[in-house]
């Protein structure tokens, strides 16, 4: 049992290392070969370990949890962060594709163009920066003249509309949110009765805005 548990720990680390070596693209949009790779990695790792009993299964689960937490803790330190998490890679700069970085991260031009189009930019020259993040996602920063207009850019003051806070969800009172807006459950009952509701169970969803404390109620549909 001890040997099998040690094998599990070693295989966990080995699979992690292999997936890091395979690159960030494995974590982004799965192609057919990405999916097949992950399935076979999992099969090969699990087939090599035999769980002999319920107690052994518990030990294996605890071990995996421990290894996960260890990696998470180590990722907080700069010396390990680059290996465990990775680092962002610029793949488009000032409208030009970095062929060197595409090759480095093994990200195909077809995938890049598809992702860029999905962001609404069919022409890569419209992009100031495209960055492949450590989690495999792409961040797109368009050229400043193509950025959407915002009230700030137009120097328009916008009135704060308030943050809706749920106070009843599916007939259940959200006490933490009531405390957050410094209101009591007694106040809530009075507000509901003023609106014609006498039981929480009649309310599907109720929320309140933090700026004016106005309550909105959505009852269950019959």
Query: What is the string of SSEs from the N terminus onward?
Result: HHHHEEHHEEEEHHEE
Low-pLDDT segments: none
Distance between the termini: 57 Å
Radius of gyration: 26 Å
Query: What's the structural domain tally?
Result: 3
Sheet bearing the most strands, described? 4 strands, antiparallel
Work out the number of β strands: 8
Report the sheet-strand fraction.
15-25%
Q: Which structural class best describes the helix and strand composition? A: alpha+beta
Question: Looking across the biggest beta sheet, what order are the strands in?
Answer: 2-1-3-4
| Global morphology | flat
Output the number of helix runs: 8
**What is the residue-averaged pLDDT?**
81
Percent helix: 40-55%
Notes on the structure:
By secondary structure, the protein is of the alpha+beta class. It folds into 3 domains: 2-84, no CATH class; 89-146, CRO Repressor (2-Layer Sandwich); 164-219, CRO Repressor (2-Layer Sandwich). It is built from 8 helices and 8 strands, in the order ααααββααββββααββ. The protein has helices at 2-22, 32-47, 54-74, 78-84, 99-105, 109-118, 175-180, 185-194; strands spanning 89-93, 96-97, 127-132, 138-142, 164-169, 172-173, 203-209, 215-219. The strands form 2 sheets. Strands 2-1-3-4 form a 4-stranded antiparallel sheet. Strands 6-5-7-8 form a 4-stranded antiparallel sheet. Strand 5 (164-169) and strand 6 (172-173) form a beta hairpin. Helix 1 runs antiparallel to helix 2 (32-47) and helix 1 packs parallel to helix 3. The radius of gyration is 26 Å and the shape is flat. The N and C termini lie far apart (57 Å). The mean pLDDT is 81.
């Amino acid at each position: 049992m001890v040997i099998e548990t040690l094998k599990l720990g070693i295989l966990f680390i080995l699979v992690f290392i292999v997936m890091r070596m395979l690159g960030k693209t494995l974590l982004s949009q799965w192609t057919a070969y990405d999916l097949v790779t992950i399935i076979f990695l999992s099969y090969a790792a699990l087939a090599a370990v035999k769980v002999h009993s319920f107690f052994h299964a518990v030990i294996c689960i605890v071990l995996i949890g421990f290894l996960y937490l260890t990696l998470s803790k180590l990722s907080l330190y700069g010396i390990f962060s680059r290996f465990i998490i990775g680092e962002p890679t610029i793949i488009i700069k000032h409208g030009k594709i970095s062929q060197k970085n595409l090759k480095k991260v093994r990200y195909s031009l077809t995938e890049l163009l598809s992702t860029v189009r999905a962001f609404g930019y069919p022409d890569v020259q419209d992009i100031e920066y495209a960055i492949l993040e450590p989690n495999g996602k792409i961040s797109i920063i368009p050229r400043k003249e193509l950025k959407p207009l915002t009230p700030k850019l137009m120097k328009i003051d916008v009135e704060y509309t308030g943050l809706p806070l749920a106070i009843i969800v599916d007939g259940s009172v959200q006490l933490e949110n009531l405390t957050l807006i410094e209101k009591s459950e007694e106040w809530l009952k009075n507000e509901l009765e003023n609106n014609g509701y006498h039981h929480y169970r009649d309310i599907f969803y109720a929320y309140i805005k933090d700026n004016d404390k106005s309550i909105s109620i959505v009852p269950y549909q019959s």
